[in-house]
Amino acid sequence: MEIRELSISEVEDALLLIKEVFLDTEAKECTPGGVGVFLDSLKGSDFIAMIREEQYILAGTFDEEDRLAGVLGARGGFLALLFVRVDHMGRGYGKRLYRFYEDRILSGEVTCSKISTNSSLGAVSFYEKMGFCITGEQKMIHGIPFVPMEKGFSHEDKFGIVKT
């Protein structure tokens, strides 16, 4: 199983996977307007611009047949997207994608002291297993329900002093 940052040429495939999984799993929790808002937010040109400006990590994991199985999108300490093909759920793809991103933070490649995410209702238990805590009540913005969650980190500097 390979995990890596996706190239510009792979962005459209990643967005297609996100759309398919969203429609299969999360759209039923949203209002009809919320579904439209989410789908409208997935513009390839926007993702490409953010990746080129090095403001956004778009990573993918691939299955045994070298098929894109999951996608993670993050900007700094905000985990914006984590989607795994429905037929690949429960097989560790999401966990490995998350750990790929977390390793970037722990290595100092991404600078932040915590990760925040707006979890879909169905993903709260996954994030709790990854060490996240719920930080507020369930909310709905633009017809999309979510639960705000965070995970904090401590980093040691070169002198062994822990910084949070």
TrEMBL record:
<feature type="domain" description="N-acetyltransferase">
    <location>
        <begin position="1"/>
        <end position="154"/>
    </location>
</feature>
<dbReference type="InterPro" id="IPR016181">
    <property type="entry name" value="Acyl_CoA_acyltransferase"/>
</dbReference>
<dbReference type="InterPro" id="IPR000182">
    <property type="entry name" value="GNAT_dom"/>
</dbReference>
<protein>
    <submittedName>
        <fullName>GNAT family N-acetyltransferase</fullName>
    </submittedName>
</protein>
<dbReference type="Pfam" id="PF13673">
    <property type="entry name" value="Acetyltransf_10"/>
</dbReference>
<dbReference type="InterPro" id="IPR052564">
    <property type="entry name" value="N-acetyltrans/Recomb-assoc"/>
</dbReference>
<dbReference type="GO" id="GO:0016747">
    <property type="term" value="F:acyltransferase activity, transferring groups other than amino-acyl groups"/>
</dbReference>
